[in-house]
Amino acid sequence: MVFKALLISVLAAFQITKGALIRRATCSDGTVVANSACCVLIPVIQDIQENLFDGGECGEEVHESLRLTFHDAIGISPAIAATGVFGGGGADGSIILFEDIEPNFHANNGVDEIIDEQKPIIAKHNITTADFIQLAGAIGVSNCPGAPQLNVFIGRPDATQPAPDKTVPEPFDSVDSILARFQDAFSDVGGFTPAEVVALLASHTIAAADHVDPSIPGTPFDSTPELFDTQFFIETQLRGTLFPGTGGNQGEAQSALAGELRLQSDSELARDSRTACEWQSFVNNQAKLQSAFKAAFRRMSILGHDESSLIDCSDVVPVPPAPASDAHFPAGQTIDDVEQACASTPFPTLPTDPGPASSVAPV
């Protein structure tokens, strides 16, 4: 803790303020950074890539690390704080620092697995847990073809209290409840629009569910979970006809493909009048997918903090591989299978993959 406190003091000394001199530098691996304080992240990133992400893969640990960024950051409620009770610190590392409390919240089911993988790496480096969680998520996403190069900030102090329960939205929550939860979490920083909620859900393009249906852990939300592409927004709009495992699970809706799980919340957001057109706007629009998710992730990753008090170290994030897929209907699906929900704009025309009806293998 002494080392981490010292690091925060050192980082603060390099902070951009009026009249301050920011030292540009070349780090040990050749990375050129606008602020030399960011060079402390290079060995952390090397460790993350080698020992957490299996040499730089876009796999399960990336999915889970990205999930952890959200579950840590969204744990803040100005509405709760207004009652005189601690409302959470946002992106403050509390989900790991209080691992005997927060992972037991129902919405955080399963986060203990990635916490157990991240903790030994955090212990080896002079970095706050709050910074590490967001760094690991951004670095993991950089391994996924088609992803944006996300922003990374450092200088967050670690949490001293756990976040309150029920601040993380659940897949069985209504659209009203989900939009209200985001509005509350961001209310001190100008709110969070329904369009931004949809943008943040682009994370589901490289996600999978382990605990919604425990009989089929690792079931993805689209047919290309190793690619950061628009298939998630296409396939969630297709008419649901089956459950990939057992039916009747809380928070699950029928999906269109065998081996693909659909969250109830995703299904309803894709069809709600407040979000349907924004949802559809991502179909076959890789550039918007990248820019909108990058902007939403940036806002989420600094929840509870003043950006001007942090150091922008985005230049240490690797440039992700180029997109590796084109938007399409899965084999066996056509425009006739789309449940059109946007009243103002027709669904885009897309090709259909050849062959028999698609079946997605668990990741």
UniProtKB/TrEMBL annotation:
<dbReference type="Pfam" id="PF00141">
    <property type="entry name" value="peroxidase"/>
</dbReference>
<feature type="binding site">
    <location>
        <position position="229"/>
    </location>
    <ligand>
        <name>Ca(2+) 2</name>
    </ligand>
</feature>
<feature type="disulfide bond">
    <location>
        <begin position="27"/>
        <end position="39"/>
    </location>
</feature>
<keyword id="KW-0325">Glycoprotein</keyword>
<feature type="binding site" description="axial binding residue">
    <location>
        <position position="204"/>
    </location>
    <ligand>
        <name>heme b</name>
    </ligand>
</feature>
<feature type="binding site">
    <location>
        <position position="205"/>
    </location>
    <ligand>
        <name>Ca(2+) 2</name>
    </ligand>
</feature>
<dbReference type="InterPro" id="IPR002016">
    <property type="entry name" value="Haem_peroxidase"/>
</dbReference>
<dbReference type="GO" id="GO:0004601">
    <property type="term" value="F:peroxidase activity"/>
</dbReference>
<feature type="binding site">
    <location>
        <position position="222"/>
    </location>
    <ligand>
        <name>Ca(2+) 2</name>
    </ligand>
</feature>
<dbReference type="Pfam" id="PF11895">
    <property type="entry name" value="Peroxidase_ext"/>
</dbReference>
<dbReference type="InterPro" id="IPR024589">
    <property type="entry name" value="Ligninase_C"/>
</dbReference>
<dbReference type="InterPro" id="IPR010255">
    <property type="entry name" value="Haem_peroxidase_sf"/>
</dbReference>
<feature type="binding site">
    <location>
        <position position="92"/>
    </location>
    <ligand>
        <name>Ca(2+) 1</name>
    </ligand>
</feature>
<feature type="disulfide bond">
    <location>
        <begin position="277"/>
        <end position="342"/>
    </location>
</feature>
<dbReference type="GO" id="GO:0020037">
    <property type="term" value="F:heme binding"/>
</dbReference>
<dbReference type="InterPro" id="IPR019794">
    <property type="entry name" value="Peroxidases_AS"/>
</dbReference>
<dbReference type="GO" id="GO:0000302">
    <property type="term" value="P:response to reactive oxygen species"/>
</dbReference>
<dbReference type="GO" id="GO:0042744">
    <property type="term" value="P:hydrogen peroxide catabolic process"/>
</dbReference>
<feature type="binding site">
    <location>
        <position position="94"/>
    </location>
    <ligand>
        <name>Ca(2+) 1</name>
    </ligand>
</feature>
<feature type="binding site">
    <location>
        <position position="90"/>
    </location>
    <ligand>
        <name>Ca(2+) 1</name>
    </ligand>
</feature>
<dbReference type="InterPro" id="IPR044831">
    <property type="entry name" value="Ccp1-like"/>
</dbReference>
<keyword id="KW-0349">Heme</keyword>
<dbReference type="GO" id="GO:0046274">
    <property type="term" value="P:lignin catabolic process"/>
</dbReference>
<keyword id="KW-0439">Lignin degradation</keyword>
<feature type="signal peptide">
    <location>
        <begin position="1"/>
        <end position="19"/>
    </location>
</feature>
<feature type="disulfide bond">
    <location>
        <begin position="38"/>
        <end position="313"/>
    </location>
</feature>
<feature type="active site" description="Proton acceptor">
    <location>
        <position position="71"/>
    </location>
</feature>
<feature type="disulfide bond">
    <location>
        <begin position="58"/>
        <end position="144"/>
    </location>
</feature>
<dbReference type="GO" id="GO:0046872">
    <property type="term" value="F:metal ion binding"/>
</dbReference>
<keyword id="KW-0560">Oxidoreductase</keyword>
<keyword id="KW-0408">Iron</keyword>
<keyword id="KW-1015">Disulfide bond</keyword>
<keyword id="KW-0106">Calcium</keyword>
<dbReference type="GO" id="GO:0034599">
    <property type="term" value="P:cellular response to oxidative stress"/>
</dbReference>
<dbReference type="InterPro" id="IPR019793">
    <property type="entry name" value="Peroxidases_heam-ligand_BS"/>
</dbReference>
<feature type="site" description="Transition state stabilizer">
    <location>
        <position position="67"/>
    </location>
</feature>
<protein>
    <recommendedName>
        <fullName>Peroxidase</fullName>
        <ecNumber>1.11.1.-</ecNumber>
    </recommendedName>
</protein>
<keyword id="KW-0479">Metal-binding</keyword>
<dbReference type="InterPro" id="IPR001621">
    <property type="entry name" value="Ligninase"/>
</dbReference>
<feature type="binding site">
    <location>
        <position position="72"/>
    </location>
    <ligand>
        <name>Ca(2+) 1</name>
    </ligand>
</feature>
<keyword id="KW-0575">Peroxidase</keyword>
<keyword id="KW-0732">Signal</keyword>
